[in-house]
Amino acid sequence: MTDAAEQKTAIDGLPPLRAVIEKHDLATKKSLGQNFLLDLNLTGRIARAAGDLADHTVIEVGPGPGGLTRALLMHGAAEVVVIERDARCLPALEEISAHYPGRLEIVEGDALKADFATLAGEKPAKIVANLPYNVGTQLLVNWLETEPWPPFFDSLTLMFQREVAERIVAAPGSGSYGRLGVLAGWRTEARIQFDVPPQAFWPPPKVTSSVVHLVPRQALIATDARRLSLTTQHAFGQRRKMLRQSLKAIGGQALLDAAGIDGARRAETLSIEEFCRLANAST
Ligand code: SAM
């Protein structure tokens, strides 16, 4: 037990997170990507990275024992909606709800099947989460492929493994640049806010994590999300090959000619604008 865990209450008047985990017997499950944050100063930093929370519906995926949920409420979120798959966590979340009457809605379910626009309700949303690593990338792709655009959310503030965060913010020419970077860069301005070391979590994961903040672009280069996704899937599927080879199944040299792009280039050298041109040429 740390000093903080021995205290009866934390800075928000609720029990320390270690005590919550002990009381509700929340032994972590690897299958649910459970690495809990126990330090309310750190969860406070993530909440602050999301900006002003007062005028939004704040949606959190995977609240677990509620460390980030508590920080969001402490840092001024008027309305938080959490969606959690593990029913064992619900009693701990109910205690937070009782401490902040009328401000926390708890939804039990699978975030991959959730309709987030409906969860957000009338107000614009901010999505803030320490995502389960096994579904984090898929959730981000779903949010980035939202139609119509601009979307129902004003920002996404999300914790990923550092390597995934680097792929999200990657620029052309970098080894991390790929499908995720093209999609994220096309639809949002994304940046890494700060790193979080393994020892900040219980249990500690093997790698460093990073908080990424993404803000939707209002004006996009015109293209279709699905076509862009298909084009990048082929181009980066064989990233060491020349594009005339890797894009063979969807038009090869003829497609590249229509988009005005040299077929001898490799996927990682193309700008997002050039990928959009390719997607638009692939009717
Ligand atoms: N937010 C907590 C924190 O920061 O300490 C917990 C984060 S933990 C990395 C991920 C959480 O997501 C766990 O509570 C896990 O049960 C939950 N989870 C896993 N898969 C989920 C899914 N498909 N839908 C909703 N929640 C999920």
List of distinct ligands in this structure: S-adenosylmethionine
Strand line-up across the major sheet:
4-3-2-5-6-9-7
Tally of alpha and pi helices: 13
Global Rg: 21 Å
The number of domains:
2
Low-confidence stretches: 1-6
Order of helices and strands: HHEHEHEHEHEHEHHEEEHHHH
User: How many strand units?
Assistant: 9
By helix and strand content, what is the structural category? alpha/beta
CATH superfamily of the largest domain: Vaccinia Virus protein VP39
Sheet with the most strands, sense and barrel status? 7 strands, mixed
Note the overall shape: elongated
Separation of the first and last Cα atoms: 61 Å
Q: What percent of residues are in strands? A: 15-25%
Average pLDDT for all residues: 95
CATH architecture classification of the largest domain: 3-Layer(aba) Sandwich
Kindly state the percentage of residues in helix: 25-40%
Question: Would you mind describing this structure in some detail?
Answer:
This protein is an alpha/beta fold. The protein folds into two domains: 3-216, Vaccinia Virus protein VP39 (Rossmann fold); 225-281, rRNA adenine dimethylase, C-terminal domain (Helicase, Ruva Protein, domain 3). 37% of the residues lie in helices and 18% in strands. It has 13 helices and nine strands. It has helices at residues 3-6, 17-23, 40-49, 67-74, 90-99, 116-120, 136-144, 162-169, 179-187, 225-237, 243-246, 252-259, 272-281, and strands at residues 36-37, 57-61, 79-84, 104-108, 125-130, 153-161, 188-196, 201-202, 209-216. The protein has a seven-stranded mixed β-sheet with strand order 4-3-2-5-6-9-7, sandwiched between helices. A two-stranded antiparallel sheet has the order 1-8. β2, α4 and β3 form a beta-alpha-beta unit. α10 crosses α13 (272-281). It is elongated. The chain starts with a helix and ends with a helix. Mean pLDDT is 95; it is low at 1-6. The protein binds S-adenosylmethionine.
